[in-house]
Design brief:
- This protein has 378 residues and is an alpha/beta fold.
- It is built from twelve helices and 16 strands.
- It has helices at 3-17, 54-62, 87-94, 113-120, 132-138, 140-148, 178-189, 198-204, 236-239, 255-263, 280-289, 301-309, and strands at 30-34, 40-45, 70-73, 98-101, 124-127, 152-160, 164-166, 193-197, 221-225, 245-249, 267-270, 294-297, 315-321, 331-332, 348-355, 361-367.
- The strands form three sheets. The protein has a nine-stranded mixed sheet, sandwiched between helices.
- The chain is elongated.
């Protein structure tokens, strides 16, 4: 790749990122068109409500200047008719001579077919392999959902250096800094749904909203795991309901409680597991069926353990503050019965760390499932 190739591939990825919270359940895609002389003549990025794909927007902006030119796009052009005609056909109709993209689309309806169709018609196709990891990371939730029909589930927590998330007595204030909490809001913004347990709601009266004030095409879906439907009608969650709140409960919950919540506009779903618990696997499947590509868990020790033990978690995102609480009564990030042998420990791979604020850092890692190594991190 030339320096210009890298420059415009970077611009296509930056354009794609402008579709955060606006493209789901579609992937985020950005495109740049150069004319035959190498001048930048068109650009676009996809939003779900905007309907048109990034390639089409960039080609339309370029018009006749696209003929003989180059298209830089962050994902393989599609070949099938969906809400819009196939992008590969639009590329051919525009007379584009060369297409540069970082990787194939994970969607089996595309998956190499777009590149093959372009090549068959004489278009030069080049894989920008050095950008593949970044492009896949940008759309990791879309890729995961495409392959599994499930949302990518991230367990997030803020904790002290000794792994504590709450103090036993006075638990006012925050563990991490304002900077870290602002970062968390950006992460929330990137998600389609957020889930917590009734214990956290009763303790904190949380709102679970996206407070970035950035645009999103659909509200962040707030999900509460509440086996007995104890969610207070006067809670901030219920008082702020706007077709964005779901309670996951069990058949053991009193019918009157469920009906009272539904009367306030709260959606209530029954997913029974054993011992009166909510079936977390069924909850995650249901969210996938609602085309939720990503789910963030922000909960207490008990639910954190239940989610990890059920292997519904795909990755963890832990924010560490330069503090130690100590003591056996301070609440750890995970509770429950735990694993009784080191060999049975829940394992992670593809671990990375990054600084967040002064003396604070975050850890991201992917869960290994069924004893197998986690897939390579996008």
């Amino acid at each position: 790749m030339t320096s210009d190739d890298r420059k415009y591939m970077r611009e296509a990825l930056d354009l794609a990122a402008r579709g955060r919270a606006l493209a789901s359940p579609n992937p985020m895609v950005g495109a740049v068109v150069l004319d035959a002389a190498g001048n930048r003549v068109g650009e676009g990025f996809h939003t779900y409500d905007g309907v048109k794909h990034a390639e089409t927007l960039a080609i339309e902006q370029a018009g006749q200047r696209a003929r003989g030119g180059t298209l830089y796009v962050s994902l393989e052009p599609c070949t099938h008719q969906g809400r819009t005609p196939a992008c590969a056909d639009a590329v051919l109709a525009a007379g584009i001579r060369r297409v540069v993209a970082p990787h194939e689309d994970a969607n089996p309806a595309v998956s190499g077919k777009g590149f093959a169709r372009l090549k068959d018609q004489g278009v030069e196709v080049e894989l920008a392999a050095e950008f593949a990891s970044e492009a896949q990371k940008l759309n990791e939730a879309y890729i995961h959902h495409t392959r599994t029909r499930l949302p990518l589930v991230t367990l997030k927590a803020a904790l002290t250096l000794d792994g504590k998330i709450a103090a036993p007595d006075d638990n006012s204030g925050w563990i991490t800094s304002d900077i870290a909490r602002l970062h968390v809001q950006q992460v929330r913004h990137d998600h389609d749904a957020i889930l917590t347990g009734i214990g956290t709601v009763l303790a904190d009266d949380c709102l679970l909203t996206d407070r970035t004030v950035l645009p999103r095409r659909r509200p962040l879906l707030r999900v509460v795991v509440d086996s007995l439907s104890r969610l207070p009608l006067e809670s901030r969650l219920v008082e702020s309901v706007a077709n964005d709140l779901v309670v996951m409960t069990t058949s053991a919950a009193p019918a009157k409680r469920r009906q009272a919540l539904e009367a306030r506009g709260v959606a209530v779903h029954v997913f029974d597991a054993d011992r009166g618990r909510v079936d977390l696997e069924a909850v995650v499947r249901w969210l996938g069926e609602q085309q939720m590509l990503s789910l963030m868990i922000e909960a207490g020790a008990k639910l954190n353990w239940a989610a990890l033990d059920a292997a519904v978690v795909d990755k963890i995102l832990l924010y560490y503050a330069p503090k130690i609480l100590g003591g056996v009564d301070s609440l750890p990030i995970v509770g429950g019965v735990g694993r009784r042998a080191r060999a049975a420990a829940i394992r992670f791979s593809n671990l990375s760390t990054f600084p967040v604020g002064p003396d604070e850092f975050a850890v991201e890692a992917y869960l290994q499932k069924d004893g197998a190594a986690a897939p390579a991190r996008p």
